[in-house]
């Protein structure tokens, strides 16, 4: 609701209503945008499942449409949080058709673990493509792989909460109930997804989708990791020689969707959005806590990272051992979702220090921050030897 600038209005009689004025304006804006920047479905091969002809209204005033487009573009770009410093006009280097083909390729394989939302629904895929295509045309910035997963998650959340207004036509409701139905109207699923995506994606683009900014954020993360856990930092930089950029790019750009799964991401995003809104309601930044959450994720698999070599550590980071539905293998004694939630709320019971007496294939470690990296190296060697002995005994 904060993304769409909704608020309740209390009446003198004690009644409560929703102020939907801004929501209606945003929906009208997107309708205009979608009409002006039409997706070139007709340029695809005729046998393509997305192919369709474009209907042109003979009564449509072309000059009026152009003026609307210019006015809308200026209005949106002026206040758009995605404004970048560079003056590159990506529209000159890539055609509408090329962007459409890229979007189709990405959206066709979106969230294979939840095929009912996109893989098995052509209509939903078309909606998502229209959202991303219009965002690309509006902002003038290039589409980057990964954005489809971010907008896809928002789409799923809204679709789960949608209401079909036709089913309520014969029922009488109060004014507030009618406003809630209007808010959840399925006919505006695409509109609301676009507008929320456009609000939330700004800080993410600024920090993680520009090469220079991404490198800066990586350096900042390394400094935070050193301040939080010098042994983990020593392990990555000096022992494994692991460049953070290699694995952090996905953690940053996809906001942990691949690491913790869609369901956990929905719960986590809700907290991140609220925290960002509290810090600055004019520009919601859901990335503020992201580096610290990543450090928490690392701490939960530190036992396994310690006994890994370069290849094993990189594989572990790129295939984070999240518990999946139907399994009962929580990480570090807590489910991942619970751990992240407790950390987000500042619960002292969730620590980022080295777990004490953590069993790792027969080995254990318990190092305080007063110990040196040499002590850590010795403990790591003992744990790796213990693992080799255990592996040999199992054969």
TrEMBL record:
<dbReference type="GO" id="GO:0005096">
    <property type="term" value="F:GTPase activator activity"/>
</dbReference>
<dbReference type="GO" id="GO:0006886">
    <property type="term" value="P:intracellular protein transport"/>
</dbReference>
<dbReference type="Pfam" id="PF00566">
    <property type="entry name" value="RabGAP-TBC"/>
</dbReference>
<dbReference type="InterPro" id="IPR000195">
    <property type="entry name" value="Rab-GAP-TBC_dom"/>
</dbReference>
<protein>
    <recommendedName>
        <fullName>Rab-GAP TBC domain-containing protein</fullName>
    </recommendedName>
</protein>
<dbReference type="InterPro" id="IPR035969">
    <property type="entry name" value="Rab-GAP_TBC_sf"/>
</dbReference>
<feature type="domain" description="Rab-GAP TBC">
    <location>
        <begin position="1"/>
        <end position="276"/>
    </location>
</feature>
